[in-house]
Specification:
The protein has 291 residues and is of the alpha/beta class. The protein has ten helices and twelve strands.
């Protein structure tokens, strides 16, 4: 069943790419020197960040493979010169798709150890072997860039088993990547090492680092605040509790789906990739499958 679900999710993403691919990108400066980069008029990949300064130009993630040349042209024009480093936040193709194209143009790719391990096994989502990260880290790494400290840290077994978030303490910005789907049901990739409990723990860690003024760049959805992150965490923990209550009573997945315990969140959090049904299935599987 889990293989079928994974295949269906991949088909859904591929379909969304084919039907609604971004035509261009936009960069919004959220604090001086740090931009949030998004696709325009369609899907360009997960949200990205661009750090621009006198010393270095840094990208966090690099969108989907078909748009790599378009993205590179956009961020190079925005920054005014080539990209020195890319930090991958996890292994999915909507975040590492531009790796090979950027690397061919002189960019050095950094990532968690598990991202490289998975891409060594199959590098197609990163544009081929040229997209493999060349510098990896375990628990984290700190960049000292343009008079800013960028703390890159691993979030274990959350969205995947290779997640990283980036904290810029001097300017109070967090790039949460796919540990936050803002105002959307999250994709928790159980087949690539993700867990619901790890995702919840990761969000709690981010909350502990934030204050009411923190700007949080999610992997998907609009720019967020600490209050947004807290609300999304509440939705996930309550959703998990709703499904667990029925699992503990011995209900089958079909009976749970018929009861639709997440219906209270359907209007606001259901979306084309992670529907209310798929969120329910993910929670059920995580509660009934031994790790």
């Amino acid at each position: 069943m889990k293989k079928i679900l994974t295949a269906l999710l991949l088909i859904a993403v591929s379909t969304s790419y084919a039907q609604d691919v971004a035509t261009s990108f936009k960069s919004t400066e959220i604090v001086p020197g740090i931009y949030m980069v998004e696709g325009v008029s369609g899907f360009g990949g997960g949200n990205m960040s661009l750090l621009v300064g006198e010393d270095y130009i840094v990208m966090i993630d690099d969108g989907i493979l078909p748009l790599a040349p378009t993205l590179l042209a956009h961020v190079t024009a925005t920054a005014g010169r080539p990209i020195n480093f890319i930090i991958n936040t996890h292994v999915h193709g909507d975040h590492v798709g531009g790796n090979a194209h950027f690397a061919e143009n002189g960019t050095v790719v950094f990532a968690h150890d598990n991202i490289r391990k998975r891409l060594v096994a199959d590098s197609s989502s990163a544009g081929g072997d040229g997209g493999l990260p060349v510098v990896t880290f375990g628990e984290g790494v700190t960049f000292h860039l343009n008079e800013l400290e960028a703390q890159v840290f691993h979030i274990p077994r959350a969205h995947t088993d290779g997640d990283a978030a980036i904290y810029f303490p001097a300017v109070n910005v967090i790039h949460a990547a796919d540990v936050l789907f803002n105002n959307l049901f999250p994709y928790i990739d159980l087949d690539n090492g993700g867990t619901v409990d790890g995702f919840i723990a990761g969000q709690k860690k981010l909350i502990s680092m934030a204050d009411d003024e923190t700007k949080i760049i999610p992997g998907h959805g609009p720019l967020a605040t600490k209050a947004d992150l807290q609300r999304n965490l509440l939705v996930l923990t309550d959703s998990q509790a709703r499904v667990k209550l029925l699992v503990d009573q011995g209900w089958t997945i079909d009976k749970i789906l018929e009861a639709n315990p997440l219906s209270v969140y359907h209007e606001d959090y259901n979306w084309s990739f992670i529907t209310t049904e798929l969120m329910t299935r993910t929670l059920y599987r995580s509660l009934t499958t031994e790790d």
